[in-house]
Amino acid sequence: MPTESVSFRSTDGLLIEGRLIAPEREPAGVAVLCHPHPQYGGTMSSGPIPAIWRALGAAGWAALRFNFRGVGRSEGAYGRGVGEVLDAEGALALLEERYGERDAAVAGWSFGALVALQAALGDPRVRAYAGLAPPVRMSHEIDLPRTPDADRLEGWKGRALAVCGTEDPFCSPRALEEWAAAVPRMETRVLDGTDHFFTGRHDEVAAIVASFVAEA
User: Distance between CA 70 and CA 132 in Å, rounded?
Assistant: First the structure.
């Protein structure tokens, strides 16, 4: 599957680095992947993010994982969640520039799940959102609301999926259900016996996300 290093601008002008995977034929759609908290070591190579990226590519999607501002070669500094949404919006803009208007998906893990949701709700092209282990029980110092405001939710028509493990201290199944209940058309999946990092289950999680995105 062809892959390449790319760079693009966040919507506030920072140069952001990323890695794109795309089929040789026209893609079925485009997807953006958001990594976990940069101040806790999160990068575009963390946890299940590369596995999801590869699974989406294998399913015929053009998928872009990238480093948030201040991570790796990306310009800027940690943006308390709000800046990172601007990075994700820039990633979606790059994919539209390359492939035109296509169905889009946004997915994220941990902190990236909260960022991805905000980016998804702000773009009518996004038809699918997948959030892996959103840290709804952890008090990150971020300016993003845990649950988006009603106006943004009302205007978004896509489908949503949230996934966590039974052994996740930052996102228990009950907390995930309560969080997901505020988002229309969000279904949940709970994986028995796994933790916040989906240890040993990356390919399984990637298959779940790729299947959901393709159906949505």
Answer: 23
pLDDT at 122: 86
Residue 129, CA distances (Å) to 25, 107, 214 in order:
24, 6, 11
Q: How many CB atoms lie within 10 A of CB 5?
A: 9
The amino acid present at 216, given as its one-letter code, is: A
Q: Which residues are CB-neighbours of 185 under 8 A, at least 6 positions away? A: 158, 159, 160
Q: What's the CA gap between 213 and 31, in Å, rounded?
A: 9
Residue identified by tokens 């501002």 is 69
Q: Is 90 exceeded by the pLDDT of residue 154?
A: no
Q: Report, at the CATH architecture level, how domain 3-215 is classified.
A: 3-Layer(aba) Sandwich (3.40)
**Residue 171: closest CA among 112, 85, 106:** 112
Cβ pair 103, 125 in contact under 8 A? yes
Q: What is the DSSP letter of 147?
A: S
Tens of pLDDT, residue by residue over 6-27, are 999 999 999 999 999 999 999 9
Q: How far apart are CA 116 and CA 124, in angstroms?
A: 14
List b or e across 63-83, with b for residues whose CB sees 16 or more CB atoms inside 10 angstroms.
Answer: bbbbbbbbbeebebebbebeb
